[in-house]
Amino acid sequence: MAGTLKEQLDVITPALREMQKKKQQRLNELRDVQVQIRRISAEIEGLPESDGSVLDVSVDESDLSLKKLDEYRTELQRLHREKNDRLMKLEEYTSVVRDLAATLGMNSSEIIVKVHPSLNDSSGQKLKNIGDKILERLDKTAESLKEEKQRRLEKLHKLGKALKNLWSLMDTSIEDQRLFSHVADFTSATAANISKPGSLAIDIIDKAEAEVERLDQLKARKMKEVFFKKQMELEEIYKQTHMEIPPQSEMDSILNLINSGEMDHADLIRSMDAQISQAKEDASSRNDIMEKIERWITSCDEERWLEEYNRDENRYSVSRGAHRNLKRAERARITVNKIPALVDSLIAKTKSWEEQREKVFLYDDIPLLAMLEEYNLFRREKEEEKQKQREKKRVQGKVMAEQENIFGSRPSTSNRSVWNRSLNSNSSPMNRRSSQQISSNSINSASKYNRTTQRRKTMKRTNNASYLKDDAASLISTLSGPLSP
Length: 485
Description:
This protein is an all-alpha fold. 76% of the residues lie in helices and 1% in strands. It has 15 helices and two strands. The protein has helices at residues 5-45, 66-103, 108-115, 132-170, 174-178, 181-184, 202-241, 248-260, 265-285, 287-311, 322-337, 339-357, 368-407, 413-444, 451-479, and strands spanning 362-363, 366-367. Strands 1-2 form a two-stranded antiparallel ribbon. Strand 1 (362-363) and strand 2 (366-367) form a beta hairpin. The chain is rod-shaped and about 210 Å long. The termini are far apart. Residues 409-485 have low confidence and may be disordered.
């Protein structure tokens, strides 16, 4: 450099200015790169845009080399790639959320804003928070929506199956089915196949649940009708065969299951049909015994008629229908003579039935063997009573013979008839009571078979014995009166 100092300064000053200009330009470049690095880093870290530290950058002027600038630019490119990756993830998550929300009938904007306000496009914020926490929350939100979608789909699966079953059970018309056909279609659908907006909205589920509840109530009413119809059929079987009716508690428990909705229509039909089938089987096993019981009851009726016929003094008189009664009396005697063998056969068959079934044979809730034993007891009592009557007549004839020998004359026919009528009148109440005891205690009043019946039976035997004793004593004292001095 030649010349004066001023001349040298004039030569250096342009170069200096050029260098200062380049330095400022380099500083600006470094500052811009660092600001972009800071801004992108803030987005990645989730710092708010209003944070002043994002733009507060101080450049180290001790190193303004291109190498340093290249280092910053390389870092900026890496951050740009990371930001793009995060934005792609963000877009993916938000797209999933929007699709799921649309399918579920929800507002996707409200869901996204709840994750972070900056994610809403209409918020006006330039920087979106793409931090790890935000992406994680978006991912969890998408997963929760997927789970909600699966839950609703499973619920619609059940509702669709329930609707199809109820439609089949109730014979629902095609027009009524069309209102909820879209719900029935969910029975074969998968979550991946469902993307139509609003197809899994909560109001669709609510309406389907209301329809299922309505049909369930209608089903319950029809099930009750079926139940009562089957119950009447079952009770008719028990009534016809005089079997023991199941306790009401069993029927009440079935009815409670129907009211609570815990019993299916098919289960009800199977349960009631099983009971009816069992009742028919039990009734079939009782047929032979029931036929003999009917014969026994009919024979007892004939026996009572024959007793009343024998007490009729005008049975041999010539009147209309007398010959028919005489023929019936002959048939009744044949039937009555077969009663002991019939009762013995009935006892044997009943014992055999009880041994095979290992339970007591009940006829209108009363043990049949007890009824038969009671009948035999009354029959023996009646035979004893007849024997006493024959003995009384023998004593009576002997006394009359002695009177004839003493007085030398026989009683007139009219006196004899009066005497016979007095005997018949004395014996008829006894026979009548015996017949009533048999019919009432063994057949018609079987339900009163208990301790009271046993006590009444003992008292009747005692009263009958005392009655016969007093009657005989009275008769003997009457007949022996004229012989006393």
